[in-house]
Each structure stands twice: as structure tokens, then as C-alpha cells.
Amino acid sequence: MPFMYQAQRITGEHKVEPTPAMEIGSALHAGLIEPDKFSNYISDDLFLTLGSRRTNAYKDAVDRFKAEHPEKTIIKDEDFNSILKVLNEVRKSDICNELLSGGEAEMSYYWRNKETGLVCKCRPDYVKIGKRSYITEIKKCYDASTFEKIIVNRRYHIQAVQCLEGIQAVTQCDPENLVFIFMIVETEFPFGIRLMMLKPSDLIYAQKQRLSDMEKLKKCFDTNKFPKYDTKNWGVLDIEVANLPAWAFYDLEVGNEG
Asked: Which of 33, 138, 226, 241 has its CA 20 to 30 A from that of 124?
């Protein structure tokens, strides 16, 4: 929503603190594409020798370590071992190694969108430019078989077209030979891997949706209004008609009145 964009990206009023899941994701990314930074993530197995995570001895030792090593991030031992298993699976795959070598990791790209004039940014996990250019985005999940739904729910298709436009605009690579690939890795057994790209028709739909979102964002900048909800009157409170979900009346439709 526009208000959250303003609060997080412009004013800095709302800062998102990293959650354990986000820290696991950061550690996994470091291990795959920035190995020099992976040493900043450590397992808490050493502290567990002092007692369980609920004991004061454990908590005090962790607090002292964080104070002495602010650059380090402590991860639960079981999660750290899962990360190591994921890294091992990826390294055994020739195609994964090919996608994550010979390019640049975690680089920021800036350009101006032609339709709206807005300055845009993307920061893909890995970019490899050549006769065939690849943008590789690493996504962790518990069950890779459901990732198609995750793409829609988390708007990863919008991220894909954002990166495709940005990389082409900045590097001037051939757009016909530029591919966006999701590398989906499971963080639980069996630690499977899927490589996935979107269909051209889905990319066209995503681009239309992205452009619609950007036109709304441009209106925010033009009016200096960043609505909390997408109302008809652009952020001005109005009385709306509620649209209850169809399942709320399912029992009546099938004749089961309780």
C-alpha cells in the first residue's frame, strides 16, 4: 500500500526489524552468492553447552557475544545445519553453479521508467550478462511444490518484470536473451531444488499490473498523498460497501442451516 511505501522507503518512519526467518534467508543468500560474508553467521551450538535456550546462562552468554561481536548473527543450531544442507545440495547441481558464477551478486541497479518517469531500483540476487543473460533470484520455502501459489501471493511476478526492465535498461543487454529464473530451495527435508521461469504471457500480465501500480505511485508523488487503503477518493475516508466472501454463505447454499 502507498502509505507503507512512504513510511518504509521515504520517511523511514516504519522500520522492519529482521525476524529469525529473515536472518536465515540472509545467511542462506550469503552462503550461496557472498561466501565472504557467510562467516558472519554462526550457530548457537556453542552456547547450548551452557544449557537450554531458556536458561539464564544461555541468554547471558548470547547477550555478551552480541555486544562484543555486533557484526555477527546467531542462528539456531538446527536452522544453521539446514542451511548447510541446502548449500550442499545447490553445490552438487551443475546448472545451479553455472547460474551463480561469472556474474555479480547483490548489486543495485537504478533507471528511469519510460512510462511514468519514476526512478526505479532493483537489487536481484545474481546477474550474469553474456550471449545469454540470466537474473537469478533465490527463494527459500518449506515445500517447493507449492511455489506457483507463492509467486502470486508474494507478487514475485512483479519483482521479475521489475528486474527484467532494470537490468536491460542499465546493461543494455539483448532483452530477447535475458531470462529471469527463480531458484527455489527447500529448507527442510528433502532439501529439494526447483528452477523456474515465467511464461511470456504471465510476464506480459505482470508488466501491466506493475505499470498500473507505478501509475498509482506516481499519483502519490504528484498529490503528496500516500493512502493507507486503495479507496475511490484516493485516501479520503468514505463509507464502503463490504463484500463478504462467498464461503460465508456456503451452508445456506447447500441447505445445511445448522
From this structure: 226
Note the pTM of the prediction, 2 decimals.
0.84
Domain ranges of the chain: 20-89, 93-258
Give the model confidence (pLDDT) of 129-156 as tens digits. 999 999 999 999 999 999 999 999 999 9
Contacts of 12 (CB under 8 A, 6+ apart): none
Count CB neighbours of 171 within 10 A.
13
Low-confidence ranges of the chain (pLDDT < 70): 1, 3-5, 8, 10, 230-236, 251-258
59-91 residue pLDDT tens: 999 999 999 999 999 999 999 999 999 999 999
> 93-258 in CATH: which number?
3.90.320.10
SS3 letters for the chain?
Answer: CHHHHHHHHHCCCCCCCCCHHHHHHHHHHHHHHCHHHHCCEEECHHHHCCCCCCCHHHHHHHHHHHHHCCCCEEECHHHHHHHHHHHHHHHCCHHHHHHCCCCEECCCEEEECCCCCCEEEECCCEEECCCCEEEEEEEEECCHHHHHHHHHHCCHHHHHHHHHHHHHHHHCCCHHHEEEEEEEEECCCCCCEEEECCCHHHHHHHHHHHHHHHHHHHHHHHHCCCCCCCCCCCCCCCCCCCCCCHHHHHHHHCCCCC
